[in-house]
Amino acid sequence: MFLLSKKRWFIPFLSILFTFSLSSNDVLASTSVSVGQTAKLSVTASGTAPFSYQWYKNGSTISGATSSTYTVSSVATLDAGTYQAKVSNSAGSTMSDQATLVVVSLITFSTQPVSKTAAVGSSVTFTAKAGGLPAPTYQWRKNGTAISGATGSSYTISSVTTSSAGTYTVVASNLLGSATSAGAVLTVSSSGTSTSTAAPTFTTQPTSKTITVGYSVSFGSAATGSPTPTYQWRKNGTNISGATGKTYTISSASESNEGTYTVVVTNSAGSKTSNAATLTVNPVSSAPVFTTQPTSKTVTVGYSVTLSAAASGYPTPTYQWRKNGTAISGATKASYTISSATSSSAGTYTVVATNSVGSKTSSSATLTVKTATSAPVFTTQPVGKSVLVGTSVKLTAVASGSPTPTYQWRRNGVNISGATSSSYTISSVSSTNTGTYTVVAKNSAGSATSSNAVVSLISSGGASSAATVAELPLQVDFNGDGDTDLVWQNISTGQCVVWMMSGTTVKSKVTIGTYSTGSELCGAGDFNGDGKADLLWQNTSTGARSIWLMAGTTVTSKVSLTTLSTAWEICGTGDFNGDGKTDILFQNRSTGERSIWLMSGTTVSSKVSLGTVDTAWEICGAGDFNGDGKSDIVWQNILTGERSIWLMAGTKVSSKVSLGTISSDWELAAAGDFDGDGNSDLVWQSLTTGECFIWLMNGTTRDGVVTLTTQSVSWVVGN
Question: CA-CA distance, 469 to 716, in Å (whole number)?
Answer without folding.
Answer: 31
